[in-house]
Each structure stands twice: as structure tokens, then as C-alpha cells.
Design a protein that fits this description.
The protein has 402 residues and is of the alpha/beta class. The chain folds into 2 domains: 16-45 and 299-401, Aspartate Aminotransferase, domain 1, CATH 3.90.1150; 61-295, 3-Layer(aba) Sandwich (Aspartate Aminotransferase, domain 2). Helix content is 38%, strand content 17%. It has 14 helices and 15 strands. It has helices spanning 9-12, 48-51, 60-70, 83-96, 107-122, 140-145, 149-152, 170-176, 202-213, 264-267, 283-295, 298-316, 343-352, 375-401; strands at residues 27-31, 34-37, 42-45, 100-104, 127-131, 162-165, 181-186, 216-220, 244-247, 258-262, 323-329, 332-337, 355-356, 358-360, 364-367. It has a 7-stranded mixed beta sheet, sandwiched between helices. A 4-stranded mixed beta sheet has the order 1-2-3-13. Strands 11-12-15-14 form a 4-stranded antiparallel beta sheet, with helices on one face. Helix 3 packs antiparallel against helix 11 and helix 4 packs parallel to helix 11.
């Protein structure tokens, strides 16, 4: 065994369960839209911790809110009143147009709670319709709701009570409704499947179906919510009002927090003892989230819409034959490539060239930059993107002809 003083971070990493294929980069600090590694390299962050750090790194107001809280109180429990939780719940209710809020620690926990709440509302009805290609989390209930069969391998038996239909297919939803159906659970934009955006009237049709059949409309806004698309929640682009909304990721700018936001008719049926969370609504995370909601004003939301449109336009103006499609809303953008470009390989190349991205779906580069992005940041990204793509294609062509 190595002496303790000789161990580096990559030596310690062998003690981690191998759930992630990690890049060999160790970030040690961040400021604004940039991250810095332990080798002194600077990176343009177009990932935001997978749609989490919407206000970037080391934001002074967020740091102050979290530090002030942690110096006073880290944790008590949900057996006692919490003024900061009540304040955040009121802000989320106002932003969503809903009534009741439950706090947990993550997106998958929020979706688990949404499933429980829906079944409690159903009074014996238990089946929830979800869509092919969906991703709702990795705990057993949310995994079972996620209709990506590759994620299920080795984890059977799944939690029963879900029925799967194609995304963006209203007729399939209608034909799947039975007496036991209590909810329809969808992502307004499918993130993990490649930034898949449905027809403009898809959510409206789902809302109408739910209203006519006393079925709950459950919207997974874990990735799309808290400003990511230029609205507080992405369903607000489509003039619908869901019964349950789940949120996490950007809600506390990197501190662990999730929320289930529900209508009055759902909130009223949940009573003490039916659900809970030891750490949900932790004072430090809630303090950060309250500041996130304060910062997420109309000016920021307009900037998200504007900068997202500029970013998509500038990628399009590169006229890259290798780019099959660019799609997105706000600062949630997918660049799908033709087969000659492997998105995972290209994302790794961008990382080597100082830009952080990730992938989604079959062959899609996923871009999730912070809300504080400037046009200069976009131009820097475009320059690296274009140079990296040209170099990637040149090297591949050389390999093909060698």
C-alpha cells in the first residue's frame, strides 16, 4: 500500500464505486463561468454541473447566503418550524402557480415523492403513464418510471405500476388510459434522450386528457426548471397548469435540494407520517435556494432566452456539414451530429481544448451553460467548437485514408 503522503486523488479514487466514467481532470476552484483544475488550466463551463450551477461558480450573493447560514445553523430536523423553508415554498408556489411544496435532496427523490403523492390521490388507482426515452432518476421507483430499457439491465424486478408510450404521441396516451390510471408523467423536454422537444400543443393535449379523466399531470422539471429554458418552469411556455411539478438541479446552485410542487387537491391529501426526508430542506441548501429565486428575475430570464438564441444561431452559422440538427430552448441545447462525428469523442476533445460539455441521446452534444453567460463567452465557445470540430474531422479523414 502507498504511504499516505504519496497518495494522489487518482490513487484514492480506486475506493469509489465505479458508477461514473470520469475524466482525468480534478477541478479545485471556479469563478463565474470558468473552472480551474489542479494543473492550473482554465475551462469554459458549458455544463454547469449538468444544469445545476445556473449562476456560475463562487457567486458572491450565493456564497454570502450559504456561509451566513452555515455559521449559524447547519441542521435541526423537519420536526420543527423553518421560516426559510416557508419562504422558499412561497416563492416556488408563486413561480409555479401551485400550492404545496415538499422538500427533499435530489431529482430522483422528488420523482419518488411525486409517484407516492399521485398514488395516494388515486385512492386505489396506481398506474402512471410515462414515455419512451424518459429519464426520471435511478432509485427503483424513478428508474421504473424511466422508459430507457438499457438502464434496467440487471435491476429487475422493476417497481410495477407504470405503462409506457411513445413521447409526443397523444393517441398512444389516450389508448393507454384505463380505470387504474392515476397520472401521466412526462418531461416537457426530454434531456437525457438528446434534448427532444415535443410539438407545441403536446402538453396542452395532455392537460386536457388529464382534466377529462381525473388524472394527474406530473411534469418532471428537474433539468428544465428554475430558469433553464427562459421561464421559471418550461411548461410555462405552453399555457398549461400541471398538478405536480418536480424540481432539483438548479434550485440551490449546487447544494443538494429537490422539491415537489403540487396543486391544492394533491397537497391536501398528504398528512403527517405519509412521507418525509431527514435532510430535505436543509437550512444551508434552502438559504442558497432562496437567493437563487431572488436572482432569477425577469432580466435574467430574458438573458437566458436571448443568449440561448444567439448560441444556437452562431452554431448554425458555422454551416458544419457534420451537424445534423440543433435544437433547444433557452440555455438547454442539443447539437446532434451525423455518424462521422462521435459526440462522446468530440466532447472529450472539447474538454482537452478547455471547454466543458457532455452528451445525451444517441449522438448529441449537450450544452447547459450558466445563466450569466455573455456574448463574449459564446464567441469563445464558438471558436473552440469550430477549431475542434475541424481538427476532429481532419484527423478522422487521415485515419480513413491511411
Amino acid at each position: 500500500m502507498l504511504a499516505k503522503k504519496e497518495l494522489q486523488f487518482n490513487d484514492y479514487s480506486r475506493f469509489l464505486v465505479n458508477t461514473y466514467k470520469r475524466h482525468s481532470v480534478n477541478f479545485i476552484s471556479g469563478n463565474g463561468i470558468y473552472l480551474h483544475d489542479d494543473q492550473g488550466r482554465k475551462y469554459l463551463d458549458f455544463l454547469s454541473g449538468i444544469a445545476v450551477t445556473g449562476f456560475g461558480h463562487n457567486h458572491p450573493k450565493l456564497v454570502t447566503a450559504a456561509v451566513n447560514q452555515i455559521m449559524n445553523l447547519w441542521h435541526v430536523s423537519n420536526l420543527f418550524e423553518s421560516a426559510s423553508q416557508s419562504e422558499l415554498a412561497a416563492k416556488l408556489a408563486e413561480a409555479s402557480g401551485l400550492s404545496g411544496v415538499f422538500f427533499c435532496n435530489s431529482g430522483t427523490e422528488a420523482n419518488e415523492a411525486a409517484i407516492k403523492f399521485a398514488r395516494k390521490y388515486g385512492k386505489g388507482r396506481s398506474t402512471i403513464i410515462t414515455t419512451l426515452g424518459s429519464f426520471h432518476g435511478r432509485t427503483m421507483g424513478s428508474l421504473s418510471a424511466s422508459a430507457q430499457f438499457k438502464l434496467w439491465d440487471g435491476f429487475h424486478p422493476l417497481t410495477p405500476g407504470f405503462k409506457y408510450v411513445p413521447y409526443n404521441d397523444i393517441e398512444a396516451v389516450i389508448s393507454s388510459i384505463e380505470k387504474d390510471t392515476v397520472g401521466i408523467m412526462v418531461e416537457p423536454i426530454q434531456g437525457e434522450s438528446g434534448i427532444i422537444i415535443p410539438d407545441d400543443d403536446y402538453l396542452q393535449h395532455l392537460s386536457k386528457i388529464c382534466s377529462e379523466n381525473d388524472i394527474l399531470l406530473i411534469l418532471d422539471e428537474v433539468q428544465t426548471g428554475i430558469g433553464r429554458t427562459g421561464k421559471h418552469f418550461s411548461y410555462q411556455w405552453y399555457d398549461v397548469q400541471p398538478d405536480i411539478v418536480t424540481s432539483a438541479k438548479g434550485i440551490a446552485n449546487g447544494l443538494p435540494l429537490g422539491a415537489v410542487i403540487c396543486s391544492e387537491k394533491v397537497a391536501d391529501i398528504i398528512q403527517p407520517g405519509m412521507h418525509g426526508s431527514t435532510f430535505g430542506g436543509n437550512p444551508v441548501a434552502v438559504s442558497a435556494a432562496n437567493m437563487v429565486m431572488n436572482l432569477l428575475d425577469d432580466e435574467v430570464l430574458e438573458n437566458i432566452k436571448l443568449k440561448g438564441a444567439i448560441l444556437m444561431r452562431k452554431i448554425s452559422e458555422l454551416n458544419c456539414d457534420s451537424v445534423k440538427e440543433i435544437r433547444g430552448k433557452g440555455l438547454m441545447i442539443g447539437v446532434e451530429f451525423h455518424k462521422e462525428v462521435n459526440a462522446k469523442e468530440f466532447s472529450s476533445k472539447l474538454l482537452r481544448n478547455g471547454v466543458i460539455t457532455t452528451t445525451a441521446g444517441e449522438n448529441v452534444l449537450r450544452l447547459l451553460p450558466p445563466y450569466i453567460i455573455t456574448e463574449e463567452n459564446i464567441d469563445n465557445f464558438i471558436n473552440v467548437f469550430a477549431e475542434s470540430l475541424n481538427d476532429y474531422i481532419r484527423i478522422n479523414n487521415q485515419k480513413l485514408h491511411s
